[in-house]
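Exercise: predict the structure of this protein bound to zinc ion.
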Amino acid sequence: MNNTLKRLLDLQNLDKEIIEIQREKDNVIEELREEQIRYQQAADDQFSKKENKNQMEVDKKKLELDIEDAELKIKHLEGNQKLVKKNDAYQALSKEIKAAQEAKIKAEEALANHIKQTEENSVDLEKGKTQVDEIKKDLLKKADEAKVQLLEIQGKSKRYKLIRKDIVKEINDKYISSYNNLYEKRAPKIIVQANNSMCGGCHISLPAQIIADIMSLNDGDALVTCENCGRILYIESNEALAE
Ligand SMILES: [Zn+2]
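Solution:
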């Protein structure tokens, strides 16, 4: 195979690897970011639960005061009732006492519900704390792993860039610039096979002359491109013939 073609194929393969490690890097960062979000959400959730707990304590005090108020009111009304002589006034006070007793019962029921809810919340709060701790542990572990992975990727990336420089040095500038131009439009397929008389990039039928030109390509010859998509063409089976 033509020497420039060989080097261009090396370049194309290396560029595929470079894209692949960039993707790996993006994945590592994305996974870590997702874990961070998961932790943040759990922590926020736990914070809301704690705030709710504080509010519940305030509400509980209020209900206890309501009960106390109702008790005082009942006592006061019952005292008054003992002093009245007239039946009308007595009946009116009875009505008021009944209303106060009902209010007291309502507040007591609300308090009982409230206590039950507080107990449930307390279990939930504990559970939440354990969850947040676990997620934090996962996050720290993931961050450590990501650090190692990113260092590996960085090392690979540096090595690939050095290899790329060497390959580029071996290729005529003219072909590097056409490779770069094609890369913009056609990446990652730039140098494609022309097997079965078809362009491996755009799949158009190639004229017999083009195939003949590729087959007879020698070192130093101008490379053959697809007239339709502009990709650089080669024939794999040519390799055996040429070498
Ligand atoms: Zn083509």
